[in-house]
Design a protein that fits this description.
Length: about 300
């Protein structure tokens, strides 16, 4: 149970929700299998096979949104449609028009859909109610939005806002590189993206490359800003920070995973230990990250 890509949101302290109430809400919207004519179905699943829909460990809540999707490639629909159209043209000695071809494609889709295979994926979410965090493990905005939409559909309006800091990540990352000094508690790794503010498409990327030296400072002096920067926190967690305050390629280093393995006696306990350790470490890292970004911007 280790998250990889984080979207961070703040929950206001006045959110009156309990574990039991949230579990009851999510249980009313479970994942159902796709019907014969459904392309996709989504709903909540227990994070652990023997748990409820909200799995709580040390006051931290783990949620899992399941999505089942039919696998019906457009190329297959197109091929069958073309074969049907060719048959009509041969039998009736006429050209199939655009509207007829579109209708034919829709009929083919309806015929193939019930026989299509399905795949499932899970988007994880973590709520730290005491610390006021909602974290979605999603590699894209679309998956994060899908999770939030499903959550808000169940719980209704909630005091939820995207995380904002007084100092923009791009400005802060650029200053760290220009000065050659990482913020307290962090080290700068060997991955970087610099992008021109004047030319949106002009970008330079460094991968596994030393970031010290005059070359980087020269790019910054020419007006480029750091939009992605690899960092490590406390020699325990490495990640890439983006200009949108997203945390990508999150990796918990060996020392942290060894601690989790030593504390667990079986697979069930391992799941809980991993989650508890991950949540505890990330809460501390978030605090340090907010401090080096000038603190949070107060939402009016």
């Amino acid at each position: 149970m280790w998250f990889r890509n984080l979207r961070l949101y703040r929950i206001a302290p006045d959110w009156a929700m309990t574990t039991s109430r949230l579990d009851e809400i999510l249980a009313g919207q479970p994942l159902q299998r796709c019907g014969a004519m459904d392309m996709q179905s989504r709903g909540w699943v227990p994070p652990r096979p023997d748990s409820g829909f909200v799995h709580e460990v040390n006051g931290q809540w783990l949620l899992a949104l399941g999505v089942e999707k039919k696998l019906l490639p457009a190329s297959v629909v197109r091929q069958v449609t073309q074969e049907r159209a060719a048959g009509i043209e041969a039998e009736q000695d006429r050209k199939v028009g655009r509207k007829e071809l579109r209708d034919l494609r829709e009929r083919v889709t309806e015929e193939l859909l019930p026989r299509a295979f399905s795949s499932r994926r899970t988007t994880w979410g973590w709520i730290a109610p005491r610390q006021g965090w909602l974290v979605v493990d999603a590699g894209s905005d679309a998956k994060a939005d899908e999770f939030l939409e499903a959550l808000l559909h169940g719980v209704g309006p909630m005091p939820l806002t995207p995380l904002k800091t007084r100092l923009s990540p791009a400005t802060a990352m650029t200053e760290w590189l220009a000065s050659g000094e990482a913020p307290a508690g962090f080290t700068v790794d060997r991955d970087l993206e610099l992008r021109s503010a004047a030319q949106a498409q002009a970008a330079i990327r460094y991968v596994h490359h030393a970031l010290e030296g005059e070359e980087i400072r020269q790019h910054i002096g020419n007006g480029k800003l750091a939009t992605r920067l690899g960092m490590t926190w406390a020699d325990r967690i490495s990640f890439v920070l983006t200009e949108k305050l997203q945390i990508k390629r999150l990796a918990f280093l060996d020392i942290l995973k060894e601690e989790a393995e030593q504390a667990a006696e079986d697979a069930v306990m391992q799941f809980d230990v991993d989650f508890a350790l991950m949540a505890g470490e990330l809460v501390r890292m978030f605090d340090d990250l907010m401090e080096c970004l000038g603190g949070e911007m107060v939402q009016e």
